[in-house]
Amino acid sequence: MNGSKVVKAKAPSAEAQLKALVAGIKPEQQTLFRSVRKALRARFPSVNEMAYDYGHSLVIGYSPSEAGVDAIVAISAAAQGIRLFFNQGPKLPDPKNILLGSGKATRFIWIESPQTLKRPEVVAMIKAASSAAKGLAPKGSKGSLIIKQTAASKRQKQK
C-alpha cells in the first residue's frame, strides 16, 4: 500500500437532494411549491414526505408509510402549474365540486397561491382526506423526507 486512503463521498442529504429538484422547476413556481410544502408539512408532521422526480413533474406525497400509493395528499409541480392531489379523491365528499380530474384513484385542485390552501372548501377536503387515511402515526412523531427513485431519475443518473 502507498499510504493513501480511500474516502467515500458522503451522499447529499434528502433536503439537499430535494432542494436541487425544486431548483429544476420553473423559477416562478419554486416559491409557491416551497410554501405549499411548508403548509402541508405543518398539517401532516407525523407522515413521510415521499419525493418523486418524474422528469415532467416533481411530486411530494404525504404518506403514513413509505409507499406513495398510501399518500393522503400530494403536491405536483409541472409545466401547467402546481396541483394538490387527493389520492382518495373519488371517495371524498365534494359538496362544492372543487375536485378536478377523472382518474380512478385521484382528483386534484389547482394551487394558484398559498391562500388556496386556506379556502374553507380546501381545508374541509384536506380534513376529509386525513380522516380517510389509514395508519397515521401518533401525534408527536415526526415523518421523514424520502427521495424515491423513478425511471426518469434513473435515466438522468445513467447519462
Walk me through the structure:
With 159 residues, the chain is an alpha+beta fold. The protein has a single domain, classed as Aspartate Aminotransferase, domain 1, CATH 3.90.1150. The protein has four helices and six strands. It has helices spanning 14-23, 27-43, 120-132, 151-158; strands spanning 48-53, 57-63, 73-78, 81-86, 107-111, 145-148.
Give the N-terminus to C-terminus distance in angstroms: 34 Å
Strand residue content: 15-25%
Low-confidence region ranges: 151-159
Q: What order do the SSEs take from the amino end to the carboxyl end, as H and E?
A: HHEEEEEHEH
Secondary-structure content class:
alpha+beta
Number of domains: 1
CATH topology: Aspartate Aminotransferase, domain 1
What is this entry, summarized?
The chain has 159 residues and is α+β, with helices and mostly antiparallel strands. The chain is built from four helices and six strands.
Please describe the topology of this protein.
Layout: H1 14-23, H2 27-43, E1 48-53, E2 57-63, E3 73-78, E4 81-86, E5 107-111, H3 120-132, E6 145-148, H4 151-158
Parallel strand pairs: 1-6
Antiparallel strand pairs: 1-2, 2-3, 3-4, 4-5
